[in-house]
């Protein structure tokens, strides 16, 4: 009976973690689909061999990278400042 109880607790602990794994897996699948679609659309537009479209695509990737990384950097700096403040 003790071994059965141990197995039950073990499987309950696994069951608690499964939704986290499934959520991460589904987010990864959606992200992969979105990136694949965007690269497909960008590639198709670049295959027109138009220099203007190429420059705009590169500029769009650069601006997107800057916006995402800048906001992540700002959030991490804010988190560091919040940790440095004394708690009264």
TrEMBL record:
Its main location: membrane. One of its GO terms (molecular function) is copper ion transmembrane transporter activity. It comes from the Eukaryota. Residues 1-15 form the signal peptide. One of its GO terms (cellular component) is plasma membrane. The chain crosses the membrane at residues 44-68. It is a multi-pass membrane protein. Pfam families: Ctr (PF04145). Belongs to the copper transporter (Ctr) (TC 1.A.56) family. SLC31A subfamily. This is Copper transport protein. It comes from Trema orientale.
């Amino acid at each position: 009976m003790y071994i059965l109880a141990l197995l039950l607790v073990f499987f309950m602990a696994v069951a608690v973690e499964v939704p986290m794994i499934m959520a991460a897996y589904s987010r990864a699948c959606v992200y992969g689909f979105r990136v694949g679609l965007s690269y497909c659309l960008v590639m198709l537009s670049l295959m027109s061999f138009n220099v203007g479209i190429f420059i705009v695509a590169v500029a769009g990737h650069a601006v997107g990278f800057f916006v995402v990384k800048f906001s992540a950097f700002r959030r991490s700096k804010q988190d560091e400042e919040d940790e440095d403040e004394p708690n009264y």
